[in-house]
What does this fold into?
Amino acid sequence: MNNLSGRGHVAGLPAWDRCAVMGVVNVTPDSFSDGGRWFDTTTAVKHGLDLVAQGADLVDVGGESTRPGATRVDEDEELRRVIPVIRGLAAEGVVVSVDTVRASVAEQSLAAGAALVNDVSGGLADPAMIPVVADAGAPFVVMHWRGFLEGGNVRGVYEDVVTEVVDELRARVEAVLEGGIAPERLVVDPGLGFSKEAEHDLALLAHLDRLHALGRPLLVAASRKRFLGRVLAGPEGAPPPARERDAATAAVSALAAQAGAWAVRVHEVRATADAVRVARAVEGARTAAGGERDESGTAGGAPEGAR
Ligand code: PMM
It folds into this structure.
């Protein structure tokens, strides 16, 4: 199996011929990397449109921070934040995803024009989530999640992080399928930074091929996360602030695209849009070179599943 075989297509969404770019609009006062910047509806819609102009293929709208230690917002407030933004972006033809762990928010977001439900709990936080998404026939992101963090990273203990994340995600995929969501609508996500230390995130990025074994398109959301701060700081230094991690984020986007990710979720779109396009061009050149060698009878066939 070549390293591009995982990309795949998600039923109900456009088919992109490269790793897609999901731009983030956090309509929150406290998201860890961009909290407070896009907090009112007009600013948030404009920001989403700017992300599309910069090369985003879809826009992920969230109204509740999942940052460790963040206080939960109530349902009414979450709805008040996200629904008008989703409506505004969908009216402009943007492919919108809603980032929520609440079934009621997912349901109303889909009614307002969202095309995808991105649930960082993979359906664990709200038992009504899977039935709602199944009934709507919507695509669904299942992220690896061990619960909201209370009082430190107690759940971030692993003997073999890659094996455990793959096994736990497989169990969630099975539960979601049993709940009636169609397999062709599922996306999986290793949940970088969720109950994970920097070395765990890096190990997962080093082994995206093992996540492809789940047989579903893969979303990678590394943008501005803590592990990038650690990498950039080195062993002794202080991590740069979240907004100074965008070049590092674009580097991960190129690596994830090359490893066959279906999409990358990022706050700063332009550099990542360039990164995935370069990765696509290199992939095309590799395919062409493989084809030429094929004609001369000296190499194997074109990569399976690469398109
Ligand atoms: N991370 C965050 C929010 N939503 N969704 C998915 N599918 N995967 C993630 O890793 C993920 C997510 C937290 O980041 P933010 O608060 O900076 O947006």
The first helix runs from residue 41 to 53. The beta strands are 20-26, 58-62, 96-99, 116-119, 140-143, 186-189, 219-220, 263-266.
